[in-house]
Specification:
This protein is of the alpha/beta class. The protein contains ten helices and 15 strands. Helix 8 links the parallel strand 11 and strand 12. The structure holds zinc ion. Zinc ion (ZN) binds next to helix 4.
């Protein structure tokens, strides 16, 4: 900066100067969010487990620095989820994120909180009065687990894993599904988008807020079990994933995934994997490529 302009700045009243500094910091931070040009290199691999819990969601992310669980399936699949986590040798969970209060996402939450060493729970600001929800809250308070509210724009780190909280962008959605916590998980240069049950309105709000950032991903866990109320054309185009994961139950009563979504995935060149057809699915990332882990 030239001396004269430095002098001019120095003459500005302190509140104006402070405002300029704050705006500059926000501008730099906004630019940095999700736009790291050279992705950090990672030494180890991370695993993304899309656990077969029938018509519901449960996603486990395993890293050398700790495990993260996103949703816990239905009440009726508690035992299956418990068995899966035990078989994996999971004991502690750094973050248990319950995307929204529907039973097919938080049915097993009380079991997980009671049986595992949960360090933090993250919830949206979308309370409910159902028995399943109050069971979850009682387990949280009984075990005295730290609970955080999800805010769009937050970032959580577990070692080299970065969890970018994209949604919910607003807190006034009419549809509970739109309150879903939407997470873009980054491992080195690879990304997995976990869309909860977010529908078109929530997708569009995320695109409007983050669309100029780089939000493309390798894997998309489709919103709302492959329902046609989610996974809009614009969303798929912006995310441009190679792989689409559909978590749904065999012969479920909702007809998930809807045929137009299966067709839309194929039209966009996205390879789809369904838990109702294939059971639990595991993908491994070494920080630059993602591949399916088969045993
Ligand atoms: Zn659901």
């Amino acid at each position: 900066m030239r001396r004269s302009s430095a002098k001019k700045l120095a003459k500005l009243p302190v509140p104006v100067l402070l405002a300029i500094i704050v705006i500059a910091i926000i501008a730099v931070a906004a630019q940095r969010f999700l736009t790291s040009e050279t992705p950090p290199s990672v030494v180890d691999s991370a695993e993304f487990h899309f656990i077969d819990v029938g018509q519901g969601d449960a996603v486990l992310i395993r890293t050398p620095s700790g495990d993260v669980l996103i949703d816990a399936g239905k009440n009726s699949s508690e035992e299956a989820l418990d068995a899966y986590l035990k078989a994996q040798g999971v004991k502690a969970i750094e973050y248990a994120i319950f995307t929204h209060p529907h039973e097919d996402h938080i049915g097993g939450a009380d079991m997980v909180i009671n049986n595992y060493d949960i360090k933090n729970v993250i919830l949206p600001n979308c309370p409910s009065t159902t028995k399943t929800y109050t069971n979850m809250l009682s387990a949280i308070s009984k075990k005295n687990v730290t609970t955080k509210e999800a805010h769009s724009g937050d970032k959580y780190r577990i070692g080299e894993l970065v969890l970018n909280i994209l949604g919910p962008v607003r807190n006034d959605y009419e549809e509970v599904n739109d309150h879903s916590i939407v997470i873009l998980a980054e491992w080195g240069g690879t990304r997995v988008m976990l869309a909860g049950d977010a529908e078109l309105e929530a997708e569009n709000d995320i695109l409007e807020k983050f669309g100029n950032s780089n939000i493309n991903c390798n894997i998309l866990k489709l919103g709302h079990h492959g329902s046609s109320s989610s996974s809009g054309e614009k969303w798929l185009k912006a995310l441009d994933p190679d792989i689409g994961i559909i978590c749904c139950g065999k012969d479920n009563e909702y007809g998930h995934p809807h045929s137009e979504i299966v067709e839309r995935l194929s039209k966009h060149g996205i390879k789809s994997y369904r838990t109702d057809e294939l059971g639990s699915l595991v993908f491994v990332s070494d920080g630059s490529t993602v591949s399916q882990k088969k045993d």
